[in-house]
Amino acid sequence: MPTPDVARLLASDRDHLWHPYSSATNPATTRFVESAHGPRLTLRDDDGASREVLDAMSSWWCAIHGYNVPELNAAAEAQLQRMSHVMFGGLTHEPAVRLGEKLVEIAPAPEADRPKLTRAFLADSGSVSVEVALKMALQVFAADDRPRRTVLTIRGGYHGDTLHPMSVCDPDGGMHSLWRGTLPQQLFAPLPPAGLEADPDELEAWKRETASLYREHADEIAAVIVEPLLQGAGGMRIYDPECVRFLTTLAREHGALVIFDEIATGFGRTGTYWAADRIGITPDILCLGKALTGGYLTMAAVLCSDDLARTISERTGAMMHGPTFMGNPLSCAVALASIDLLDTERLTRAAEFADTLDTHLAPLRELPHVADVRTLGAVGVVELTHDVDVDAATAAALDAGAWIRPFRRLIYTMPPFVCTDDDLGTICEAVTAAVHACAPASEQAP
Ligand SMILES: *Cc1c(COP(=O)(O)O)cnc(C)c1O
User: Fold this and answer.
1) CA trace torsion 156, 157, 163, 164 (10° rounding)
2) Ligand 1 centroid distance, CA of 60 (Å)
3) Can you tell me the distance from the alpha carbon of 72 to that of 335, in angstroms, rounded to the nearest whole number?
4) pTM, to two decimals
5) Residue 12 CA from chain centroid, whole number
6) Cα–Cα distance list, 381 to 70, 102, 211 (Å)
7) Less CB within 10 Å around the terminal CB: N or C of the chain?
8) Which atom of ligand 1 is nearest to the CA of 300?
9) What's 44's DSSP letter?
């Protein structure tokens, strides 16, 4: 392949494209990726120099098996020979049917006496799956005399960027002030106390406040939605499973639905297949996405029980949603192959990342500008006492051999599950270099 004219492409990128959360007048630094293999990206600079770095982000947490994976390539290529896409309205195909069966098979079912999640709605992105989950919950009550229209969640969450999911994102982090009058008004319980085992007094106080908010609005609440165990893009916060159990009890007492958004936590990221498994709760509705296709193609899904699907259909006629690319055969075929690759061995390995990450990152706790270091499953987070200097942190990490994408006060990694111990060591060196690059001038080594 000829070497691309990187300088020209980057200039054109700046002139014509939007990047995520980007300003056209003050564009952030954007780097050029030429290809990717295993857990590594090949970057090319505008002077033509190329370098390989580990992808400590798994491309926003989805490329769990790394890149250019033979099994996933083969699944995509085989499906391309049949068809890349057909509409899902009135038609079906083998990849979708088999993915439906597979999703039902792998769905969390830690509570033996709760309905199994046996029906899947295939959506084209995580945000759309949250839209669909919220629509499902609202449709359950839509035909009532006084329909329940409100959703309760906890502060600090992230559920996507389209408007209805934005309404349940953290009101400050989700910039609700920009959208006043546009977003539906939802209910926000306080931020859950930090840590897998919260301080008992803090937990009691949180429960009291949450219960009183819930009871005040119980007859308006259609559903509770949370990211179980780990709040991702809202702040990489690990919290006590007891908070999720408590919210579930409140919702069930008052006839509301429980929605787990496992778009980030699913597929082994937090150390169990689903965060729901560790919490011991089977939700009424489950959103999954990100790692579903191993980072190859965009796809998400919403699972619910057959009972709930029937209730929605009897009360409102149909599930009113139907994306153009719903059930895309290419995505379904790759998702099937990706789920097959995520066997016990790979899951166990990912669950053990936390120990390795903790060993390497623990020394950072000693630094005055580090507020916290936390790990869970295949997630490692360093929280600073101030906002990250993103350009300095990213450059330092790349020099140490890994690509990171810090935000707010957080420098973190969610590595591909195929990383070796050496790869994890390099990733931690890169995170460490990034943390040092953000030290106040008075603390930096000369
Ligand atoms: C990423 C994410 C979403 C949104 O998914 P997209 O595919 O980016 O639309 C929703 N919820 C959670 C928990 C996420 O991490």
Assistant:
1) -120
2) 9
3) 8
4) 0.97
5) 30
6) 31, 32, 30
7) C
8) 7
9) E
